[in-house]
Amino acid sequence: VIDIRKLYAETGMFTYDPGFTSTASCESQITYIDGDKGTLLYRGYPIDQLADHSNFIEVCYLLMKGNLPSKDELETFDWTIRRHSMLHDQFDQFFRGFRRDAHPMAIMVGTVGALSAFYHDSTDVNDPAARTIASHRMIAKMPTIAARAFKYAVGQPFISPRNDMDYAANFLRMCFAVPAEDYESNAVLAKAMDKIFILHADHEQNASTSTVRLAGSSGANPFACIAAGIASLWGPAHGGANEAALNMLNEIGSVDKIPEYVRKAKDKSDPFRLMGFGHRVYKNYDPRAKVMRDTCHEVLDVLGVRNDPTLQVAMELERIALEDPYFVEKKLYPNIDFYSGITLKAMGFPTEMFTVLFALARTVGWIAQWSEMIEDPTQKIGRPRQLFTGATPRDYLDLSKR
Ligand code: ACO
């Protein structure tokens, strides 16, 4: 590792690294990825162990504080998150300003950014207590906001959070309960939702997290920073990939069409790529994809749709691609998005909601990364350099002479 800051101070040299493929922008103790081995650790704990044995609230504590909580610490944290889940009454009216057909991510960007207008007491980034309460508020309110974005799009009344329910179960209820009808929580689906949240909770310096850090480096308030992260996550190469993967599986439609799409993906004159395959960092099986594949089977089993044709196409496509020299040589494996779209669709979420769920889960990662940056005494405002390739100096020419 070369300390470019030192090199720059001594020689004036700096690096040209579009897409930051080989430049570390910070030191971090939160998440470790070994892309060649397919390892993902949150604060040292393997992602599959956390998905199997922990729950999202405990993982939130772990990511934010650095260690697993004691029983008392977990109870206190859980209670704190539950009691912040309501939204200010005025905030509900804010939703009604959007068109009904607004993309729920547009609603998320707008409403989360607007939180700073409602919770003035937690916008001072220099006050540790204010930072903590802002963090708790965002983790707690994100399911309520996301569920409202969903309800608003389908034209149903908002459902208030129930603080006697677990985080994921409560979220599913706020999305799928209909007033005047009984809502029965399904433990398998709630567990699957919780796992999906754990799998998406953090992934070190990806585009949206780097966006949050960059926005935060100027001292912007935490709600604005998380809104910036949501905006960055929206893109199809990032959070939107599971929607794209599901659309592609639907387009393939049947197992016999797979070879045609595999051929297209390998053809360099065709921009088509197999969505849900490949990753900037993982050059091995994405460890989250394994958990996601098992979760997908559990969800489809409990819903009695194991023979779902999209799942059949996905499994066969995975099998064919993993045996194809093109994908093997380029180390292109299914990523987390490959199975998450099928799972979420089966659970009843429309595709536009997929990235919203990702944002909900990633909020804690963004917060942990933002806090780490704010607490770092060496932190500076983010200011990438550029290689200027534009015009050399020239004199302004009057309009009559152009
Ligand atoms: N299908 C076919 N070929 C692919 C694919 C794919 N999905 N992904 C990469 N390749 C090929 C490229 O054409 C390139 O080939 P070349 O060396 O012959 O030019 C080679 O593999 C390397 O690809 P890059 O784009 O340089 O790799 P990079 O690390 O920049 O891209 C990315 C990673 C963006 C994820 C890419 O694999 C991709 O577009 N995948 C599909 C979209 C997707 O699933 N995104 C989700 C990412 S995970 C997340 O955000 C949670």
From TrEMBL:
GO molecular function, one term: citrate synthase activity
Tagged with keyword Transferase: yes
InterPro entries found in the cross-reference section: Citrate_synth-like_lrg_a-sub, Citrate_synth-like_sm_a-sub, Citrate_synthase, Citrate_synthase_AS, Citrate_synthase_bac-typ, Citrate_synthase_sf, Citrate_synthase_typ-I
Keyword field contains Electron transport: no
Catalytic activity: oxaloacetate + acetyl-CoA + H2O = citrate + CoA + H(+)
Family annotation (Pfam families): Citrate_synt
Record keywords: Acyltransferase, Transferase, Tricarboxylic acid cycle
GO cellular-component term (any): cytoplasm
Active site: H279, D337
Pathway note: Carbohydrate metabolism; tricarboxylic acid cycle; isocitrate from oxaloacetate: step 1/2
GO biological-process terms attached to the record: tricarboxylic acid cycle
Gene3D superfamilies in alphabetical order: 2.20.28.60, Citrate Synthase, domain 1, Cytochrome P450-Terp, domain 2
PANTHER family registered for this protein in UniProt: CITRATE SYNTHASE
Family: Belongs to the citrate synthase family.
Name used for this protein in its record: Citrate synthase
Organism (species): Maricaulis maris (strain MCS10) (Caulobacter maris)
Biological classification of the source: Bacteria, Pseudomonadati, Pseudomonadota, Alphaproteobacteria, Maricaulales
